[in-house]
Each structure stands twice: as structure tokens, then as C-alpha cells.
Amino acid sequence: MMTIPTQISWIILFFALSPIIHAKHPREQQHQNTSSYDYAKVIHVEPIIKRHQVRTPQHDCRFERIEHDEHESHTDNSTGNIIVGGVLGGVLGAQMSRKRHNHIPSIAGAVIGASLGHQVSNHQRVKHRKHCRHTQHVQVEEHVKGYLVTYRYRGERYTTRMRHEPGRRLKVRVEVTPMID
Questions:
Q1: DSSP state of 74
Q2: Domains in the chain: boundaries
Q3: What is the pTM of this model?
Q4: DSSP at 32
Q5: Per-residue pLDDT tens listing for the chain (181 residues)
């Protein structure tokens, strides 16, 4: 049986020698986590495209000509326009002739005024109505979200996804890890 001072001595000795026991050979430490850089040849680059739709509202408006029937309630207005046009035309014709016995300019003015009154009433019967159609213009936009890069290093093919185009060569990290059986 061991005495307590002997047990304590063994424990102290164990902890003191522990780093030496677990230490690795310098060559083994050097190769355990070694990494370096090299260049691989890029053999194919394919952009990764994301498509999305952009919708823009559009309003297509046109004016439609609407003519009212002859028999609508506008006949009173039409007759009034003809009478007013005739009277005004006759008065203007009489003012232009300045001779009291010559009624030809008065009659011509009345006929022309009545004709103009009739045209005004026809113009009032023609209305325009605005028709609008609301649509959406759809446009597909494309954005490059990255690149699918295939490269060759020491005879092996590899593929990775990158944010930017790599160019002709790609810098790669080469790690050497020992095989532990």
C-alpha cells in the first residue's frame, strides 16, 4: 500500500511529465496542418441567372365619338339655333347693304345665319366619351446572382459557386493532412 506522500508525489510527477508525453515529434507537427496556395485552370464558367417580373401599370385611353339621334330632345335646341342664326344673319345683311329697298343681302345673311345655326346644333349633338383600359406591362428582368465555375487541378475536375467571374485561373488552397491509422 502506498502512503499519502508517495501518492502525492506520483500525481505531481504525472502532471509535470504530461506535456512531454503528449508532445509530438517536430516533423509530425510541421505536416499536420500545412496549407499552401496554387492555381487551377478554369475550364467552364456558367452565370447563375435569377429572373423576376416587374409590373408597371399602364392606362390606355381613347375618345369615342357619340352622335345623338335626330329625334332626341335636342330638336328644340336645333330649331332655336336655326332661328337665332337666321335672325342674326338677316340683321347683319341689312347692316351691310345700307340701302333700304335692297333686301337681297338681308335674305342672304338670314340663309347663311340659319345654315350656321344648323351646323352649331349638329356640332352640339356630337359628344365624345373617354374610354380607358387599365393594364399592367410585365417585363422580365435578369440578374446574375453568381457563377458556377468548373476548374481542373492536377488532373481532377472540381466545381464551385462564386460571386465573381474568376478569370482564366483560380487560386486554390492546397492542404496536406497526414493519414493516421
A1: T
A2: 63-134
A3: 0.40
A4: H
A5: 678 877 777 778 777 777 666 665 555 555 456 789 999 999 999 999 999 888 988 888 888 877 665 555 545 566 766 666 656 666 666 666 666 666 666 666 666 766 766 666 665 556 778 888 888 889 999 999 999 999 999 999 999 999 999 999 999 999 888 777 7
